[in-house]
Amino acid sequence: MIHVATTNKPLSESQENYLKQIYLLTERGVSAATQDLATDLRVAPASVTVMVQKLQELGLVTYEPYRGAHLSDQGKTVAIELIRHHRLLESFLAKALGYGWEEVHDEADRLEHYISETFENKIAEWLGHPEFDPHGDPIPDAQLQFPAGVRSQCLAGLRPGTKGTVCRVATQDRDELNLFKQLHLVPGAAVEVLESTAAGLRLRAGEAAPGSANRFLIPLSLAERLFLVEETL
User: Fold this and answer.
1) Mean pLDDT of the chain
2) Please, what are the domains in the chain?
3) Buried/exposed code over 173-196 (b: 16+ C-beta within 10 A; e: otherwise)
């Protein structure tokens, strides 16, 4: 558990989960509204209100009804520390223990609250201080600084003829991850947009030659999960 500097008391697993989810929502430019938190954390809206008010009392969150919750500087520090734990654990589970990328999220969710800073640093050292986890999400360093961002674009917004490399898969849904893996839509994979239709995007993935079987149509709902670094001429 991570301690709060002002009280030197450990936060509960639930409190840490709230802080992390508020960070992830606001990072995406969405306010951490009560209903959004309730949906993401699978709890009742009334429970969200009670918890957010408690976190505000601890100085970790500022909350205004109808405007949502925002992290204080201290709350943000706790959230980023937890994200570092989580993404290092995902990387370790995949590289050291052979977990599939569709399995690592749930396991890391359970472990992230309990590892020590010593264990965290040992994992990072063993992995070679990675900057990204198996899904392409950035890993904060020991000073809680994120790596310099790459100029990525959402696949759903790209025009036919665009070529690029997958750098991030923004989902933790097991079925979606299994499908992306089967289609070779993983970080590092080459992708070309062949056609944009009302039904979705027609793609070629990997280094397959034109006319090969490695072509398919994916709906826009899935294309929105993928981020590419566009190929430059």
Assistant:
1) 91
2) 3-71 (1.10.10.10), 152-230 (2.30.30.90)
3) eeebbeebeebbbbbebbbbbbeb
